[in-house]
Write a structure and sequence with these properties.
The protein contains three helices and no strands. The protein is mainly α. The radius of gyration is 18 Å and the shape is elongated.
Length: about 120
């Protein structure tokens, strides 16, 4: 059994990559807010996270679960041909930061638990 390569860890690592890409896209939108010829980049990368492994135990079993396919996230930007609304982009950036930080904390705790197990310590 590979302790560093299970479906939950792969999902957490993939989510960090998605949130990084989202951060870059939102930052580009903010940076070009005053450019009249700039076309806003869509920052909805959530479909990348829905591609989980078939043997993954992570499933949305309730329509109120985060990322449930039946209920799209209303806070994620939808259009690609709209003007940049600076306050909306800043709120998307803050939300994306919270999601990234949450995934990073979970990943850190998982690796700390593995480290404690390897070294024979209790948490």
């Amino acid at each position: 059994m590979k302790i560093y390569e299970n479906s939950q860890l792969r999902l957490l690592k993939r989510s960090l990559n998605v949130y990084t890409n989202q951060h870059n896209a939102i930052s580009e939108n903010i940076g070009n807010a005053n450019n009249d010829r700039f076309v806003r980049r869509n920052t909805d990368f959530s479909e990348m996270l829905t591609r989980v492994d078939n043997n993954s135990k992570l499933r949305a079993t309730n329509e109120r679960h985060i990322g449930s396919p039946e209920q799209p996230d209303p806070l994620i930007g939808q259009g690609a041909e709209e003007d940049v609304d600076l306050s909306e982009e800043m709120s998307l950036l803050a939300e994306n930061h919270i999601r990234f930080d949450f995934a990073a904390q979970i990943l850190r705790r998982r690796f700390e638990g593995l480290q404690a197990s390897i070294l024979g310590r209790s948490r």
